Amino acid sequence: MPTTCRSRNQEASPGAPIFGAVEAGLGELAGLAPSEVLRRRLERAALLLAAIESPPGLASPGWAALLDAVTVQETRLFRAAPQLLALSALLPELPGRPLRLLSAGCASGEEAWSLAILAAKSRTRAEVLGLDLCRPALATAEAGRYPAGPPDALREVPDAFRPWFIRDGGWVVPRFEDLSRPRFLRANLLAPPEEIGRFGAILCRNVLIYLLPAARDAVLRGLVARLLPGGALLLGPTDSPPAGLPLRPEPGAHGIWRRS
Ligand SMILES: C[S@@+](CC[C@H](N)C(=O)[O-])C[C@H]1O[C@@H](n2cnc3c(N)ncnc32)[C@H](O)[C@@H]1O
Predict the structure, then answer these.
(1) Average of per-residue pLDDT values in the chain
(2) 58 and 89: one domain?
(3) pTM reported for the whole predicted model
(4) 70 C-beta closer than 6 A to ligand 1
(5) What is the dihedral of CA 8, 13, 17, 18, to 10 degrees?
(6) Ligand 1 test: best mutation among 75, 207, 220, 221, most atoms within 8 Å of CB?
(7) What is the model's pLDDT at position 19?
(8) How many domains does one find in the chain?
(9) Residues 126, 13 share a domain
(10) pLDDT tens for residues 81-140?
(11) Residue 250 half-sphere exposure toward CB, CA atoms < 13 A
(12) I need a surface site. Which of 142, 157, 209, 241 has the fewest CB within 10 A?
């Protein structure tokens, strides 16, 4: 039966009506009843199957749907707060005004909003940009509304930063009126668009662990090239930059390097 379904899917273009034979096959195979929900899932599965028939590309509907489906969006407001507090202490000496901060692999935007709050609290004029591949995550990032929990969305937010959020029913929302809103962009860290410019600090935390070794190096080299001299690079707990990059560890701060 899977062979039959596959050959029929190959004839379909993404978004074409789902074949009755596929529904019949699923009913025969696993007793699944036809329904609206099943239809929607089949349409999505058809896109995923189509992916392998077109060359990999961010603009290909199939590959885009695959990336949405397979990337890991685990993130939290003020995740790894001690590292963010160390960054906060460095803000006055970081290059560029307005200070430009990049959340590379921003997922649903909690890191970018945390950066906007760090800058606002320290009265540093800043622009925050978040980059990611995953479209649903970027839509959440733009909205900046997070389920209050449980688990408590503010559980990692240090007390001093909690007043920068309001609770709105079952949601936690940054105080937009007191912040410079981050911008979010769908982009591949392996080939970020030239026009994003250069930054005073770049965070690429909990992203590299999902990449092949060669891709990790390429992403890091690309990001370091976008750091202004004196700028800070913040990585996840298990990451370290490859040798030969113009970086020196920031004394006393775990996971922070400065561009020389
Ligand atoms: C686990 S989240 C990390 C979120 C945030 N940086 C944090 O530390 O909480 C990893 C994110 O990296 C994104 N990602 C993975 N590979 C990427 C690539 N090549 N280009 C852009 N984003 C990528 C994923 O879509 C996902 O949203």
Answers:
(1) 88
(2) no
(3) 0.86
(4) no
(5) 40
(6) 207
(7) 54
(8) 2
(9) no
(10) 999 999 999 999 999 999 999 999 999 999 999 999 999 999 999 999 999 999 999 999
(11) 21
(12) 209
